[in-house]
Amino acid sequence: MSHDLHESLRDNVRILGDSLGRTIADDLGQGFVDKIETIRAHAKQGRQGDSLQQRDLIEYLRKLPEQDLLPVTRAFNQFLNLANIAEQHYRARFRRVEDYKPGSQPVLGELLKRAEQAGNSPRKLVETLANMRVELVLTAHPTEVIRRTLIQKYDAIDDCLTAIEGSEDYPERGTRAQGRLEELISQAWHTDEIRHERPTPVDEAKWGFAVIENSLWQAVPDFHRDLDNLLLDTAGERLPLDAAPIRYASWMGGDRDGNPNVTSRVTREVLLLGRWMAADLYLRDLEQLKTELSMWKANSALKAEVGDVAEPYRELLKRLLGKVESTRDWAKAELDGRNYDGGPIIETRDQLYAPLLACYRSLCDVGLDTIANGALLDTLRRVAVFGVTLTKLDLRQEASRHAQVMEELTAALNLGHYRDWDEQQRQDFLLAELDSRRPLIPRRWECSAETREVLDTFKVIAKEHAEALGTYIISMAAEPSDVLTVALLMKEAGGQVTLPIAPLFETLNDLDHAGDVIDQLLALPGYRKLMRNGQEVMIGYSDSAKDAGQLAAAWAQYRAQESLVNVCERHGVDLTLFHGRGGTVGRGGGPAHAAILSQPPGSVNGSLRVTEQGEMIRFKFGQPDIALRSMEIYACAVLEATLLPPRTPEPHWREEMDQLAKVAHAAYVGVVREDPDFVPYFRAVTPEGALGRLPLGSRPTKRRQDGGVETLRAIPWIFAWTQIRLMLPAWLGSGEAFSRRLEQPGGREVLQEMRNEWPFFGTYLDMLEMLLAKADVAISAYYEHRLVDEPSLKALGKQLRERFARLEEAVLDILQQDALLENTPLIRQAIDVRNPYIDPLHGLQAELLQRNRDADGAISADLSRALMVTMAGIAAGLRNTG
User: What are the catalytic residues (predicted)?
Assistant: First the structure.
């Protein structure tokens, strides 16, 4: 990494920090800024090993007047957000950087050359990219803490940095940009960073559509244009016009798993919003095309379509504009609950695509290729990717909710009790009903409100065009009957739409049996008729890690994928794996390129679905340049995994992983499930209790409001541990597994062999190394010191920190390093730069949590808000928090 790149990042951090300092001085006076600087200096010196400064920091924070606590937390939170802007800007400007490891992220051009050298013909490269189906599924995120109004200001600040960097020869432009930067930072400082109300599922969907409008709408045609240029150089041809290697789907407004706020009415509203916004965006494109395509030369097909007119392209576009305007008006009327009495509307992708294609072919036929491959091609690419709905909306519901419908139905029809039947009885009944021509559900059936809601959701599916909807996902799926039930309910709703049905295997036990379940399903002739030779399966990362610990879960996910690939090959069925990854290591997070190449051979065969969640959507797709790079990374990784798949793991590596996972799982369960002090410790030392009051996502933080850790959702579970820097879910158990193996003969050698030669294991260690570097047991010890009284709980905390230390020692031993992140200095630098700003937030959070508990949750509104701001600031500083 060149010295200049480091300087660029540092300069921008300094520019933003200085501007924030001036803004705070204007608001609260220079004396307050001096307090902030004193706190930062104590934190910085404490980080350099000065224990006296660490004590001074804590004392200084505890003596702050109550009226200073909120502005102090806000100052540090704001700086961390500005540091993130500088880093995002840096990544967008220097595209080769994704995980700050020089050379680790190939650009597409280099990969195409490598694939060609490995014996793949230019035609094979074009075909593979043309047939590639990568679907990025945008999901809402309960730990996305930054308000949309602030995100918009942060994007504008990024634009100012670009203007300042490009103003060397135009100093007056630099001065204007600096003035605008000061204005935006002042706006951000004077804006409340914490929402006062939880977003609704519709709010979340609007946020997802805004990412498309503000970033992806530009990035998608840019990505295809770059891809076309590469293919023209490599293979002498463009990507086919209707090819869309990377598409977008969404869970926002469709994911009802444990979220009572997502109803059939919400799903219908979100679908209509997608139609409205798509029409609005295409209108802008079509107006531009109508202005630009003023040519008179046209082929006979276009002339036959529009008649003998002077400007045939404008004539066709004028007609299309009218239909798209009608579509927007129709969607608005539906949203408003009004009757629509306008003209014909656009219902399908092809109705929009065909007229544009006619223009394109005509221009090419009359020799105007340069014009055809300009703005018109960009719009065709958008239609291929976004269709007329912007995203395909997935739906997700728990298996138990479908079983409840069947239980009520069989009881009402005097057929027995579905819940008492064994799996074979359930399958026989469901297959018979799937084959039956008569309806099963009585027309005037009076069922429970929960069952009515499930049935109403299937009615929404029945009334939609298939291209508006993605996959129906069944969470906590465990048996073939879970899939057959959804197929039956879809049939009973009476529509023409049959969505792909994806069981989601997310506990350790379910992952271990995933292959068997799909094998049983595919062996059922009645099911094969329904599924049209394609099977989608979702692999759960967060719940499996929460259930079993990260190491055991990662190995279970790998083995489940291998099993599913083998089963589907044997049955002659195309498999699409859907990865439910989150932003953190504890939820399968990490650089996308490395993660995809670490999957089992054959599991990424030109197709892949993967979730992109809240904060990671912003970090990967929130700005056009970053989005362009993220799409390139996905395309690269899937192309490489398809044409140059990783090697099959050696048998002795499998044996090693089996043993490591066994030891790690036992150690994890021994603490989380079996130690009676664990849940009380978790509740006492983390801000989990206060987290429920933070108005983040639309979904409750718990699946049930009673019970212990098992009822907590995986995201807030990880968020709570991240806040105190212990990151426990992502490493607990791994230390015992690695330490034990290193003590045995040949252990070090085989672990190093796996690290160097097996992408799955190498990627796992890289993620663990980054996580260990972000964790800080001294900070978690301070939370314990401040918040925990009972000796037995303190003893558990001490034991957890000792386990962490053993793991760090073991990882460094395997990596043959003296310190963490030796080979990724920029990640190390990013962490080091942030720590002096995060440390005071930790100190303040522990103090505020204690005051909150002393007051039995009745602290003042300002202190409550300060507590929330500490959570937001720590999340911003550590980035991949949930």
Answer: 141, 546
- Fill in the amino acid letter for 288: Q
Report yes or no: 47 and 836 within 8 Å, Cβ to Cβ: yes
Distance CA 654, CA 658 (A): 6
pLDDT, tens digit, 9 for 90 and up, residues 139-185: 986 545 567 788 889 889 999 999 998 888 889 999 999 999 999 99
pLDDT of 509-521, one tens digit each?
999 999 999 999 9
Token look-up 């992140």 returns: 821
Q: Render pLDDT for 215-243 as a digit per residue (tens, 0 to 9).
A: 999 999 999 999 999 999 888 999 999 99
* β-strand partners of 396: 255, 473
Instruction: Please name the helix (run of DSSP H) or strand (run of DSSP E) that holds residue 820, with its range, or none.
Output: none
Q: Give Cα separations from 407 to 401, 404, 433, 526, 754 (angstroms).
A: 10, 5, 15, 22, 49
- Comparison of pLDDT for 857 and 271, the residue scoring more: 271
Q: Is 89 a catalytic residue?
A: no
Tokens encoding 401? 């909710």
CA angle 689–693–695, rounded 5-degree value: 140
Q: Which of 546, 579, 774, 842 is catalytic?
A: 546
- Rg of the chain (C-alpha set): 28
Q: What are phi and psi of 120, to 5 degrees?
A: -90, 125
What are residue 59's phi and psi, to 5 degrees? -65, -45
Classify 623 as helix, strand or coil: coil
How crowded is residue 310: how many other Cβ atoms within 10 Å of its Cβ? 8
As a whole number of angstroms, the distance between CA 194 and CA 180 comes to 24
Dihedral angle computed from the Cα positions of residues 863, 864, 870 and 871, in that order, rounded to the nearest 10 degrees? 170
**What pLDDT was estimated at residue 102?**
41
Residue of 42, 89, 101, 141 marked catalytic: 141
Are the C-beta atoms of residues 406 and 455 closer than 8 Å to each other? Answer: no
Q: What is the pTM of this model?
A: 0.91
Bridge partners (DSSP) listed for residue 392: 249
The single-letter code of the amino acid at 566 is N
**CA-CA distance, 852 to 869, in Å (whole number)?**
14
Do 848 and 859 form a contact (C-beta atoms < 8 A)? yes
d(CA 548, CA 528): 33
Q: How buried is residue 590: exposed, middle or buried, by Cβ count under 10 Å (0-12/13-18/19+)?
A: buried
- Residue 546 annotated to the active site: yes
Supply angle C-alpha 334, 336, 337, rounded to 5: 65
